[in-house]
Amino acid sequence: MATSSNDTTALLDIAGVSKAFGSVEVLRAVSLKVDKGEVVTVIGPSGSGKTTLLRCVNFLESYDSGSIRIDGKEVGFREAGARQRRSERDLAAMRAETGMVFQSFNLFPHLTAAGNIMLGLTKVRGKSKAEARQIAEHWLGRVGLAHKAESLPAELSGGQQQRVGIARAVAMEPKILLLDEITSALDPELVGEVLAVVRSLAEDGMTMVMVTHEMAFARDASSRIVFMADGGVSAVGPPKEILAQETTNERLRSFLARFRASHF
Amino acid sequence: MLSQILYALPFLAQGFAVTLWVSLLVVVLSLIAGVALGVGLVYGPAPVRWAVRIFSDTIRGIPILVLMFFVYYGLPAAGLHLQSFWAAVLALTLFKTAQVVEYVRGAVGSIPKGQSEAAMAIGLTFRQRLTSVIFPQALRRFLPPWINGVTDAVKGSALVSLLGITDLMQAINQVIGRTYEAMPLYILGALIYFAVNYALSYASRRLERRFAFIRD
Amino acid sequence: MGYALNFNLIWRHFDKLWGGLLLSLELAVISIAIGIVIGLVLAVWYVSAGRVVRGIIAAYVEFIRNVPLILLVYLVFYGVPTVVDLAYDAPTSFVLTLSVYSGAYLVEVFRSGLEAVPRGQLDAGKAIGLTPWQRLVHVRLPTMLRITLPALSNTFISLFKDTSIASVISVPELTYGAQWINFNTFRIVEVYLVTTAMYLVTGYTLLFGLRLVERRFRAAR
């Protein structure tokens, strides 16, 4: 594991996280460390727990055991004493430290593109309207949508909506950006424009964890690939190493084989 | 006949004012209570959800008239002495609150879960999520049925006449008692109620059509 | 406070409530049956009629829906006999009123149901050579019924509750029975607790039964 580190300064430290929905174990003692500036892509068959893992990082899902720390701070539970869920206010503050981009965009349909970005800046970051507006315009420019600031989500294409979704997340200056199959709901010809934005963020040094089916992107743009299967991490390492493991890792081989059969 | 109706008009106008006053009180009070309980029904912990569910299903399961008699005659037995006017307002408010609860549940429940999640992800607190994300979107699903439902408050208010309150219905009955012109007065009364309620349901339909053009 | 619950007097006069409940149900069933006929005929007429007829039917629906039932009950019982040479007792008068009232609500339910029947079904009916009447009876109405069943159930329950208004013209149904016991025994809380329970049990039993019918219809599709 060339670029992964075992020191305690990892930005994101997932340690032995398990979670079950009823009797179905979706995460089994998953551990993963992500350093500042890393781009980690998570791949794996559906039902392997990758989306659930991502949603645990900003506590949209609770986890049953283990710990998730960002910058050394436990995400969903209080530090001291018995395992106790953080207060609503604490959770909101913790979540503001991570950004998330959703598969189905989840833009607020009653707000303009700029309004979507400004909401968190004014309500959570306490910025003035004017300042928030400036930041929103800056980020809309970054994702190539400066001219769409006043458009409602319904007036934007899927690719444009998702770029606003990304701008909304990064405008909050999160320590880490979580991307959950952000191109899966897009028409194929719109995927490129969204991935280009992600690539440019990576070049700027944004720390990212990205669940994706875009193998080419995972191969070319990520510092490490995590392959998940049956709720656990089956393989992790730089793209070349992982893809080379295809000969030794039975699960990875069958995943990639099935993947190629259905996608190419 | 015409002269008698003309003579009755100021009296009916007074009754009509009471009808509007009762309706207004009921609409405002039930809006506040209904939104609070409705939010409790959707987002509250299990005991709250159950309590609101039972409240709403019980109230909606009995005739308004029974509810009104229960409140009017029952409260003194429980040691609470309300003027008949306020007992009537209380009973109608209970009835209307249960309705509003269901409108809120329907409207808020129609907002996809992803909206709450996206709002959580940028760090909004529960209250901020409600006021900035959920309510603005739920409003256009809530408004048309709610405005239309105001007619139920106006129609329901006619029952307060049975507690001796001189609303429009009671005023009509009293004028008939004096003039023996039953049919013209009932028709006049019906037309007054119709005018108010039709305006409300018309507004509701207009609003619904306007909202229909806003895509999700 | 100091009010001690005592149900003995309620049980002694329980026949007033039980008989009242049966009468409530009777009033509801007869009125709904007549209302269904009114509603079906007018709804079918409406969707195929010209402007004038539509206007008249719409006026009937809108008028009834926007006027309090209690006023209509007074109007039919005290008002109508003063201008028309008709004599009827209070229960008949109420059934008449509630029929016309329920008819207006049911026209609306049936009309929206008829308009929701997919065009393709009617075309299919035409394609196999059904006459307009056959298309109505064998295609339109059955489909419409399935679509409207949930709304229909709710309307029925609501009309059952509306029978309580009959008490204002002294029809001895359930609410009237409750008031009688209230005034004669002063066991106010008890009598309304029991009456509330009776309305709830009857109403929800009806609703549950109707939901079963709905499910059967859906399964039969």
TrEMBL record, chain A:
All copies of domain ABC transporter, residue ranges: 12-255
**What are the recorded GO MF terms, alphabetically?**
ABC-type amino acid transporter activity; ATP binding; ATP hydrolysis activity
Coiled-coil regions listed in the entry:
none
Q: What is the membrane topology here?
A: Peripheral membrane protein
Q: What are the entry keywords? A: Amino-acid transport, ATP-binding, Cell membrane, Membrane, Nucleotide-binding, Transport
The compartments listed are: Cell membrane
Give the GO cellular component terms, alphabetically. plasma membrane
* Pfam families per the UniProt record, alphabetical: ABC_tran
Q: Which SMART domains match?
A: AAA
Question: PROSITE patterns from the entry?
Answer: ABC_TRANSPORTER_1, ABC_TRANSPORTER_2
Q: Which protein family is it in?
A: Belongs to the ABC transporter superfamily.
Q: What is the name of the protein in this document?
A: Amino acid ABC transporter ATP-binding protein
Task: Give the originating organism.
Answer: Mesorhizobium neociceri
TrEMBL record, chain B:
Any transmembrane segments, and where? 20-43, 64-86, 183-200
UniProt keywords, alphabetically: Cell membrane, Membrane, Transmembrane, Transmembrane helix, Transport
Query: Where does the protein end up?
Result: Cell inner membrane; Cell membrane
- Which molecular function GO terms apply here? transmembrane transporter activity
Which membrane topology describes this protein?
Multi-pass membrane protein
Question: Its Gene Ontology biological processes?
Answer: amino acid transport
Q: Ranges for the ABC transmembrane type-1 domain?
A: 16-204
Chief place where the protein resides: membrane
Record has Heme as a keyword:
no
Q: Which GO terms describe its cellular component?
A: ATP-binding cassette (ABC) transporter complex
What is stated as this protein's family in its record?
Belongs to the binding-protein-dependent transport system permease family. HisMQ subfamily.
Query: By its UniProt entry, which NCBIfam families does this protein fall under?
Result: HEQRo_perm_3TM
Write down what this protein is called.
Answer: Amino acid ABC transporter permease
This protein's species is: Mesorhizobium neociceri
TrEMBL record, chain C:
> A GO CC term?
ATP-binding cassette (ABC) transporter complex
Location within or outside the cell: Cell inner membrane; Cell membrane
Q: Tell whether Cell membrane is among the UniProt keywords.
A: yes
Q: How does it sit in the membrane?
A: Multi-pass membrane protein
InterPro entries from the xrefs? AA_ABC_transptr_permease_3TM, ArtM/GltK/GlnP/TcyL/YhdX-like, MetI-like, MetI-like_sf
Q: Which Pfam families match?
A: BPD_transp_1
**What does the record give under GO molecular function?**
transmembrane transporter activity
The record's section on SUPFAM superfamilies has: MetI-like
Query: Single Gene Ontology BP term?
Result: amino acid transport
| Membrane spanning residue stretches | 20-47, 67-88, 191-213
Using the UniProt record, give the first listed, main subcellular location: membrane
Matching entries from Gene3D superfamilies are given as: MetI-like
Listed A to Z, the keywords are: Amino-acid transport, Cell membrane, Membrane, Transmembrane, Transmembrane helix, Transport
Where does the ABC transmembrane type-1 domain lie? 21-210
Q: What family is reported?
A: Belongs to the binding-protein-dependent transport system permease family. HisMQ subfamily.
Q: What is the protein name stated in its UniProt record?
A: Amino acid ABC transporter permease
This protein's species is Mesorhizobium neociceri
